Amino acid sequence: MVDALRRAHGWLQAAGSLVDIRPTAEPAYLEVQLASGVVVAGRVGDLNDSAGPNARHARADTALAVALEHRWFVSELRLEFSFHRYADRIAEVRDHVRDDWIGARIDDDALERASRLQSSEPGARLRIREQIGIGRLRPIRG
Amino acid sequence: MQLDPEGLETAALATVAPDLARRRVLEVGCGSGRLTRRYAARAGEVLAIDPDEAAIATFRTGMPPALHKHVSTQTGTLVTLGVPDGSFDVVLLAWSL
Question: Measuring CA to CA, which of A66, A120, A122, B75 is 20 to 30 A from A73?
């Protein structure tokens, strides 16, 4: 990851920008949107402590901190937003996490809770909420 | 699965990188082009790379004709990409660091 940032630094024009968009180290949550509000049913976790999205995002934060420490870049702007993935059925959520999120897992209890909540109200929507950070960094030369 | 129907990601990118016109952009980790399709029309030129050959093939097949003049794709990573220093105005790490 640090090597990727070093290479990106070299490929940029002096007045260029590095834009880094990725999930924060905060876990993603399985939620159900009800008429009365949003209820958290569970979270997306790592399969183990060293593999999985949460550990990966923490490593990316560390790599970026190293690049800033080396003064390859200076941070200009950073903001966060929520990224939502909506599903019609709980099976869609389960398959999505299993097939598309490397090293991630979601507990059966959370899936069951979400399924119960969804069926409790017509129009309830399932979603996974992920907190995303986006930053703009300017390369430092010399 | 419907991803970011609210367009919050597109809005955030527009805030952080408001001026992409005439800029040369390297997007790292483009996958099948989900994010690329949301901003490429306002960029000068985009080179979108990803190590997943199948994803790049899907991207090429499904790319809207209007983007053909803006976007080129390549299977690869930052390590395998051979370009001279100073080649890009913007390097976009798209969920890839």
Answer: B75
